Amino acid sequence: MTLGPSSTSEEIIAHLKGMRDEANIEGMGRFGIDTGTALGISNTVLRSIARQIKRDHVRALALWASDIREARLLAAFTGEPKKITADIARVWASDFNSWEIVDGVSDLFCDAGLQDQLLTEFAEDEREFVRRAAFAMMAWSAVHMKKEPDATFVNWLPLIETYATDPRNFVKKAVNWALRQIGKRNATCHAPALALAERLAASGDKTSRWIGKDAVKELSGEKAMAKIGR
After folding, report:
1. pTM, whole model, 2 decimals?
2. CA neighbor of 159 nearest in space, from 187, 186, 178
3. DSSP 8-state symbol, 81
4. Alpha-carbon span 96 to 88, nearest angstrom
5. C-alpha dihedral sign at 143, 138, 172, 180
6. How many Cα atoms sit within 13 Å of 216 on the Cβ side?
7. Is the pLDDT of residue 218 over 90?
8. Rounded distance, CA 205 to CA 200, Å?
């Protein structure tokens, strides 16, 4: 079957099912990916398929509704940012069951410009993967939102400090990721991000201390300092 822009969600899903790879499914599980509905298709292959089928909002919604890992990643890769609303994002977030899905969809949410509406809401949500989404969005935005004022990113640092005590693996790693990406954005963001990292590194809380020490190490390193021109 040759896929293209006119391919339906049903055709795409049938194509994906024909590519099922049991060995890859087993390997994905070792990386903390939820494989309950996985077909074992790599992201590299899925990205290639996404380029073939192009963006289609209605089809992306149908792919997401399938509950299949690969179809949901294709929904993230081929959704139309201008048509993704906060309400759609909330519905999708309620289905999050894997860090991989979160990170793929967070890019789409950011492209849709939903940061102002969702960052604080998602950070305050007690569900592990929804909270992760807030900090994945921060990390992605710090790298890709080139024209956004630096104040936007500095103003996100208090959220990082607030939730740096969450010990859950997929939250703490995302909090750390967001802090490092904000700090590496430029010299203006670097100073307050490093100051926060140092404060967390000296914390009495184990999780905050890990996040802070790891961020201090990277933000004080030669590579980061060269990137921001110091």
Report:
1. 0.94
2. 178
3. G
4. 13
5. positive
6. 14
7. yes
8. 8
Q: Which two tokens stand for residue 18?
A: 């024909």
Q: Is the pLDDT of residue 4 over 90?
A: yes
11 vs 182: CA distance, rounded Å: 41
- What distance lies between CA 140 and its chain's CA centroid? 7
Structural contact between residues 179 and 220, judged by C-beta atoms closer than 8 angstroms:
no
Extract the tokens encoding 119.
Answer: 């960052």
Helix residue ranges, H only, the chain: 9-17, 22-29, 43-53, 57-65, 69-78, 86-93, 99-111, 115-124, 128-144, 150-154, 157-163, 169-183, 187-201, 206-219, 222-227
Kindly provide the b/e burial profile for residues 138-170, where b requires at least 16 CB atoms within 10 angstroms of the residue's own CB: bbbbbeebeeeebebbbebbebbbebbbbeeeb
Contact present, 74 and 15 (Cβ < 8 Å):
no
Tell me how far apart the alpha carbons of residues 189 and 153 are, in angstroms, rounded to a whole number. 7
| pLDDT (0 to 100) of residue 230 | 64
pLDDT digits (tens, 9 = 90+) for 104-155: 999 999 999 999 999 999 999 999 999 999 999 999 999 999 999 999 999 9
The C-alpha torsion from 56 through 36 and 172 to 124, rounded to 10°, is 60
User: How many whole angstroms separate alpha carbon 29 and alpha carbon 7?
Assistant: 30
Does residue 136 contact residue 115 with C-beta atoms inside 8 Å?
no
CA distance 180 to 193: 8
Instruction: From 157, 169, 158, 175, select the one nearest 211 (Cα to Cα).
Output: 175
Cβ–Cβ contacts within 10 Å for residue 75, how many? 27
